[in-house]
Amino acid sequence: MKAVHLIILSLLFPLFSQADTLTVKGMTCRSCEKQVTSLVCQDQEMSKWFETCAAKVTDTQSELGEIRYTLKKDITMDQEKMKKIEKVIVESGRTLEKTSSAEKTLTK
After folding, report:
1. Cβ contact 18:32 at 8 Å
2. Predicted local distance difference test score (pLDDT) of residue 33
3. Distance of CA 61 to the CA centre of its chain
4. For the chain, what are the domain ranges?
5. Residues 97, 56, 43, 39: is their CA dihedral positive or negative?
6. For residues 55 and 42, is the Cβ–Cβ distance under 8 A?
7. Of the CATH numbers 1.10.760.10, 3.30.110.10, 3.40.50.10400, 3.30.70.100, which one belongs to the domain with range 17-106?
8. Is 20 helix (H, G, I), strand (E, B) or coil?
9. pLDDT tens figures, 14-70
10. N or C: which end of the chain has fewer CB within 10 A?
């Protein structure tokens, strides 16, 4: 019976994780994807927040990209975390456009 409960919990686990996408202006190529992924998703501190995280160029002509992430179960995206992400993005010469769910987090 315990095994059945563990299986059910493992199937429900993704429902408790917060996923979001952040838009990044100034991304033009695969090198940008690698750099932004490294700066945010693989950062020693920030990587502890994410279950999954990756950056991707979405429109080369408009120089747009995105960071898609899923937070770990017990982690929430708050203003402090969002400011750290924004800081490394800005320091890399890009800008962070907050998505609707990120804006909700920032206005709390």
Report:
1. no
2. 96
3. 23
4. 17-106
5. negative
6. no
7. 3.30.70.100
8. strand
9. 445 688 999 999 999 999 999 999 999 999 999 999 999 999 999 999 999 999 999
10. N
Q: How many CB atoms are closer than 10 A to CB 12?
A: 9
Helix then strand then coil, in percent of the chain rounded to 5, is 45, 25, 25
User: Could you tell me if 66 and 72 are in contact, meaning their C-beta atoms sit under 8 angstroms apart?
Assistant: no
What span, in angstroms and rounded, lies between the C-alpha atoms of 107 and 88? 21
For residue 88 the two structure tokens come to: 């490394």
- Which residues have CB under 8 Å from 37's CB, separation 6+? 53, 54, 55, 67
Picking from 91, 18, 96, 92, the residue whose alpha carbon sits closest to that of residue 50 is 18
